[in-house]
Amino acid sequence: MRIISGSLRSLKLQTLSSTTTRPSSDRLKESLFNAMFMRCDFQRWCDMFAGSGAIGLEALSRGAKEVIFIEQDRSAYQIVKNNIETCRMQNQSVLIQDDALSHVQNKEHGLFDVIFMDPPYDYDLKSLVDVLVKRPWYDKDTLFVFERRASEDMTWCDEHFIIIKQRKVGQSQYVVAKIRV
User: Fold this and answer.
1) 173, 171, 170: which is closest to 153 by C-alpha?
2) Cα angle 154-158-163, degrees, rounded to a multiple of 5
3) Do residues 32 and 170 make contact, with C-beta atoms less than 8 angstroms apart?
4) Would strands 114-117 and 143-149 be described as parallel, antiparallel, or unpaired?
């Protein structure tokens, strides 16, 4: 696992080898960022289910001003913390150890430009999204990015979102969407 581009290009990141996390592949990350986020200048990101923190750190490497990392798993949280320190991005990072659903229900962080969600494949993402869209975390320009199993039917997104881009990469897919207004 490495940073693909930007100020931290080629920097290797620690990953956790466990059944509780599934890191985004370099191939998927490169496809997503090259298609949608070549530059992240001055953006605020939320990297929910952060895993290793690779997505949020890629955004910081490409110019994001701040990333909020949310990770529940204790071991993964420590990996994210180590990777933030390795990248020397402590001043642009907020790392939170919490369950994503309870955090969304109870905390506010202001508006994000991008909310990235890559939960375990068996996680009920739609239930989290149903809560998130009622919270003040986004505006009409916020991009929501969901990473899921390539075979998953993502038509549930149509209830709240307009899909801007959807792409399958290996065993995974990502969906980039904006809120319906």
Assistant:
1) 173
2) 80
3) no
4) parallel
- The CATH code that applies to domain 26-179 is 3.40.50.150
Q: What is the pLDDT of residues 6-46, one digit of tens each?
A: 999 999 999 987 655 566 677 777 888 888 888 899 999 99
Q: How far is CA 98 from the centre of its chain?
A: 15
The 3-state secondary structure of the chain reads CECCCCCCCCCECCCCCCCCCCCCCHHHHHHHHHHHCCCCCCCEEEEECCCCCHHHHHHHHCCCCEEEEECCCHHHHHHHHHHHHHCCCHHHEEEECCCHHHHHHHCCCCCCCEEEECCCCCCCHHHHHHHHCCCCCCCCCCEEEEEEECCCCCHHHHHCEEEEEEEEECCEEEEEEEECC
What gap in Å lies between CA 119 and CA 141, rounded to an integer?
A: 23
| Per-residue model confidence (pLDDT) at position 22 | 60
70, β-bridge pairs: 48, 96
Q: What pLDDT, on a 0 to 100 scale, did the predictor assign at position 28?
A: 78
The whole model's pTM is what? 0.93
Mean pLDDT to the nearest integer, 68-97: 97
